[in-house]
Inverse folding.
């Protein structure tokens, strides 16, 4: 994670794992800084958007991914095959190595949160 003095620019791109890591650290911080809890939905929304992009990309480019998606919805196959297909598609979606640009809204939010957390006047 970049230093707290760094500014989060919309032109920066981060992989999904970095978004998830930042969100996890902020979630842990909310145990002591309760007001930060109200900003977490913006981070969750950003992660959901990245996951949607990954899912669409895999659906358009990966034949095995499409077959696993079809297998999830077939009711004639055993339950363990369907859950295996669900696990494989979820793992592939999360592990796709693709960077995403930081949205302007998230960039401003991150700068705001960092400036407040670094302010000595805020206790």
């Amino acid at each position: 994670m970049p230093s707290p003095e760094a500014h989060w620019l919309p032109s920066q791109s981060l992989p999904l794992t970095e978004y998830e890591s930042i969100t996890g650290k902020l979630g842990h911080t909310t145990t002591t800084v309760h007001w930060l809890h109200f900003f977490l939905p913006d981070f969750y929304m950003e992660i959901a958007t990245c996951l949607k992009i990954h899912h669409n990309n895999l659906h358009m480019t990966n034949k095995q991914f499409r077959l696993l998606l079809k297998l999830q919805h077939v009711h004639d196959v055993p339950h363990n095959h369907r859950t295996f297909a669900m696990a494989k598609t979820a793992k592939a979606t999360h592990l796709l190595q693709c960077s995403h640009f930081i949205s302007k809204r998230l960039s401003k939010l991150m700068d705001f949160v960092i400036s407040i957390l670094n302010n000595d006047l805020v206790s």
